[in-house]
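Ticket opened by: R.M.
Priority: normal
Category: complex prediction / small molecule

The reporter submitted a protein together with NAP and asked that the result be attached to this ticket for the collaborator who will pick it up next week. Submitted input follows.
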Amino acid sequence: MDLQLKDKVILISGGAKGIGGAISKSLIAEGAIPVFIDPSEKEGKELIELADGKALQIPMRMFTAEDAETAVKLCLEKFGRIDGVVNNAGANDGVGLEHGSPEAFANSVTKNLNHYYYLTHYALPELKKTQGAIVNISSKTAVTGQGGTSGYVAAKGAQLALTREWAAELLPYQIRVNAVIPAEVFTPLYQNWINTFPDPDKKLEEINQKIPLGRRMTSPEEIASMTLFLLSSQALHITGQHLFVDGGYTHLDRTL
Ligand code: NAP
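Result attached by the on-call engineer:
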């Protein structure tokens, strides 16, 4: 299947490591041009080398509207177009009802949600020209809950709502908007989290046993494959969808 992504310029928040890093790598393999907004120096450099220069790192931790506007500007200065946006940066920061505060909640929602809107808003004039596509990376916690992480989950749920909302608003421009929903993906963020348990290996094995298909984690590359498909011209009649790439974690009976 030819995804026809060659020379397409795709903006990715948090695109140097983990899921975003796998998306950038897969785009490079397809001859596309990832422009990744991510402060990670070492991984960023490796990606630029891999792409033979046909990529751009915007080395910032994006939170504000000004950050997003700057990222779009830098992308346009270098490559002159935007064909897709992948909103991906975020972190499960454990701000709960009991162990939290109104201020921490507001901060967590702001950090995990607002830049999805900001980046899309500033990229929109360019996406209209290219009839581009948007992919929002959400989380299974948006539909299952997790406990102890109100801010993150509120943001992840809102990302799913905005996927439908933007898909409706952008129909006249033929801009498609979809969400990919991972459950358990082994990334640097996940590694940090698993290391907080007294016996990380045992915890990891317990989690693997809860994943119906293959009793294993989803790989970052498997999330990237779905994301690239949704960005591509092979998905021209798919919009407003929430795609679970989770080995059946969210919907299948885990006692089987
Ligand atoms: P990750 O391993 O931490 O990778 C994310 C990358 O984004 C890192 O390079 C990080 O830099 C960077 N980053 C974080 N916040 C940023 C910001 N505001 N602006 C720019 N760059 C930023 O995370 P991941 O596990 O791949 O998660 C990616 C997305 O998938 C998140 O939205 C997460 O909620 C979602 N997700 C992940 C899982 C999972 O199992 N991993 C499950 C469900 C949903 P630093 O390392 O310097 O922070």
